[in-house]
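Researcher: Structure for this, please.
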Amino acid sequence: MSRQFFHWIIIAALSVLLACKPGDELAKSYPGKITINVENPTDLLRVDSFVGVNLSKVAEKCQKPVLDKGSFVVMIEGREVPSQLADNWLYFTADFAPWEKKKVTIRYPLESVEEQQYPQRAHAELSKKVGGHFEGNHYIGGQFQPVSCEKVPKVHVDHDTYYRFEGPGWESDKVGYRFYLDQRNRIDIFGKKVTQMVLPNVELDGFDSYHEMSDWGADIFKVGESLGIGSIGTFFNGAVQQIYETDSIYFKILSDGPVVAEMQTKYYDWKVGDRNYDLQSNLSIHAGSRLTKHKVKVSDDLENLVTGLIKTDGCDYIRGDFQTNSKWNYIALWGKQSLMGDNLGTALFFRNADLIEISDDELNHLVILKPEAGKLNYYFAAAWEGEPDGVKTRAEFVDYLDQTVQELNVPIKVIY
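Model: Predicted structure, token format:
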């Protein structure tokens, strides 16, 4: 029996034990219903596959005013599954056997009802200090307070203690990430030893305390001056130029679980040579996934965007198969690159159609990409052996990389 099949059996069993209310209990509060089909069009076992249902399409086809209801429940095989409404999309995850097609019922109320609450499996947050003050480039006093949006103060720099863990954090039940909301704008990794959301309690016991291993995990990655994992910049005059100099930076949390978490950062007047650009970065993660999706939008005619993985001595550098007709590909590193001295895999997934060049410099393995009409999407992921039932070997990591590419190539299909 394969490792993946075993995981699927366990999760399927847990989903029965932990499922939400049965359908007959919800029918009274949510009498309206619409049925769609969701299909796995591959021979892969797919666990916690992310499904997005466009409610505008549902309403148009069914000629029913569902968008103004504001609350929905998703039923699969007669039982409720956790879901999340964001804009006019309804998100949930589901497990699929090869070629499986599931009948999904979306229920909605005919009058106002209390929104359903689900266990949180994706989370995003930013906490800043309030009640204190800046003295030069250091924040004195104050207490951390979560905020949903923020204009970054001009005086803010790295290590001034203003933001908890130095900027925004986001996590799934698999892994956590953060990026430095200062002149560095680089992405780091939190290794998690538990599946619960941990970021609300990180660093409450002292600045930089997350560098020490605890019951929940720790910061397990060294970024330094590199691109870390998946940070964004441009390749200019023969070198990587990260987002160092800007006029202003605005941050906003767009979604905070339970199924998907998404954050948006807007950089105004990013200086590249003698030109200035506006860049928008959306980072998102969903339940059951290690992948962070990075949606980038840049103004004007910036010729390229670059991302990368920090070079680590003694690690295996892995490239996807560039001889196939795959839409997506990857570069990755596997080995003892964790700060704890154990195995950690890092990966970048990108579209072959966007690729300008795979290269490197002194610090990074680089992927140079071409925005299309100023837009670019790519993904990055970390797989730490210290996770619950984590990836332990290079072979398991390569299996994960290859399956991820196949899933990106052929997404779950929603049939309206």
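Researcher: Any notable elements?
Model: The helical segments are 3-17, 23-26, 55-62, 394-409. The first helix runs from residue 3 to 17.
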